[in-house]
Specification:
CATH architecture of the largest domain: 3-Layer(aba) Sandwich
CATH superfamily of the largest domain: Glycerate kinase, MOFRL-like N-terminal domain
Structural class: alpha/beta
Number of strands: 11
CATH topology of the largest domain: Rossmann fold
Number of helices: 14
Largest sheet: 6 strands, mixed
Radius of gyration: 22 Å
Length: 375
């Protein structure tokens, strides 16, 4: 995104900036600071990057145009706690608890916004008075743009009260330490800036890419390949077993109606990890659950699920593919697929079978894509 901006603004404009990513850029610009932010758990680089962004924004005035270029993953790559007493270890504990919680991304980001000095609109406040434009590559539902990267430059629609409700409903406050629980329980916890804050008086925002684009391209390719196509996003943010059951049932109905059918679904499913877990991610866990259902019920179908960013959980894969024979093939290869499913350890199974999808990081994050074929 920064490279594209500099193609437009690099000549004839006085430009300075900070770019944060998980890998160094292919080309650099002398007037830009580059930082490697950690993902999915923030580290020292994420904190250093946040401090550099705040220093730069505080130089902005009424003659400054600020461009915020934000994509999914920014919640981890850019972080600075609101409470200066919170340590880097506390930050890592907080983000790890969220990643393993099974909460929907919108709920995770409500908590992240109120925890952070650089989220929930607080970067916009740091550049108050400047003209601001936020360009977004979206990894959230279309109606929730202020949750992308935990909404650092957009007015926040969530509240402190919502944070406490989420923690109360989650049981055990996600296993957070006393220090972190105390942060959210503090009666003086500062609310995030809302739409009527003066910092947003000269601000606008635009989604450049989203999961809708991902789905539309998948649909087009499926149609070219001769499939009748069904789009099904009702299961967005459902628990992975419930989503697998729903989509396979929907596929069986569509096959009876259309014959050769492709069901396309975008969004994310949730996986609540146990205390011990292996190597995998939500896409591979979903696919392995589908493999179990297909095998047990004799449904002939092929299922793919992958992360558009090329990264699924703590594995090197983006996702995986299965069919009705996958479960039996794993057993024949000496792998217990039931144990892999129960232990959240799906990557090794799919790697041995040759069914792990390994693309490497794609450079975009538009949520996950699920494709189910039958007939």
């Amino acid at each position: 995104m920064s490279e594209a901006v500099f193609e437009v603004l690099g000549a004839g404009f006085q430009v300075s900036g900070v770019v944060v990513g998980t890998a160094p850029p292919q080309t650099g610009f002398a007037q830009v600071q580059y930082f490697r932010g950690e993902h999915p758990i923030p580290g020292a680089g994420s904190l250093e990057a946040a401090e550099a962004v705040l220093r730069l924004l505080r130089q902005a005035d009424e003659e400054t145009l600020v461009l915020f270029l934000i994509s999914g993953g920014a919640s981890a790559m850019l972080e600075k706690p609101l409470d200066e007493g919170i340590t880097l270890e506390d930050i890592a504990e907080f983000h790890a608890a969220l990643v393993h919680s099974g909460l929907a991304i919108t709920q995770m980001n409500v908590l992240r916004k109120h925890f952070s000095a650089v989220k929930g609109g607080r970067l916009a406040v740091a550049a108050a008075g400047a003209t601001q434009c936020t360009l977004l590559v979206s990894d959230v539902p279309d109606a929730a743009l202020d949750t992308i990267g935990s909404g650092p430059s957009l007015p926040d629609s969530s509240t402190v009260a919502e944070c406490r409700e989420i923690l109360e409903r989650s049981g055990g406050a996600l296993g957070l330490s006393a220090r972190l629980r105390g942060f959210f329980e503090d009666e003086e916890l500062v609310e995030t800036p809302k739409a009527d804050h003066p910092a947003f008086g000269l601000a606008t925002w635009l989604s450049l890419l989203s999961s809708q684009d991902l789905q539309e391209n998948a649909v087009r390719l499926a149609e070219v390949a001769g499939f009748a196509v069904v789009m099904e996003n009702e299961c967005d943010e459902w628990e992975y077993r419930r989503a697998a059951r729903f989509l396979i049932d929907r596929l069986v109905v569509a096959r009876a109606e259309y014959g050769r059918v492709c069901l396309v679904s975008v969004g994310e499913v949730s996986v609540e990890l146990g205390a011990r877990h292996g190597v995998g991610g939500r896409n591979q866990q979903f696919v392995l659950e589908c493999a179990r259902i297909l095998a047990e019920e004799g449904v002939e179908a092929t299922v793919l699920s992958g992360g558009s960013d090329g990264v699924d959980g703590n594995s090197p894969a983006a996702g995986a593919v299965c069919d009705q024979e996958t479960w039996g093939r794993a057993i024949a290869a000496g792998i217990d697929p039931g144990a892999a499913l129960a232990g959240f350890d799906s990557y090794g199974l799919f790697k041995v079978l040759g069914d792990a999808i390994e693309t490497g990081p794609t450079g975009n994050n538009l949520r996950d894509l699920r494709v189910l074929l039958a007939g």
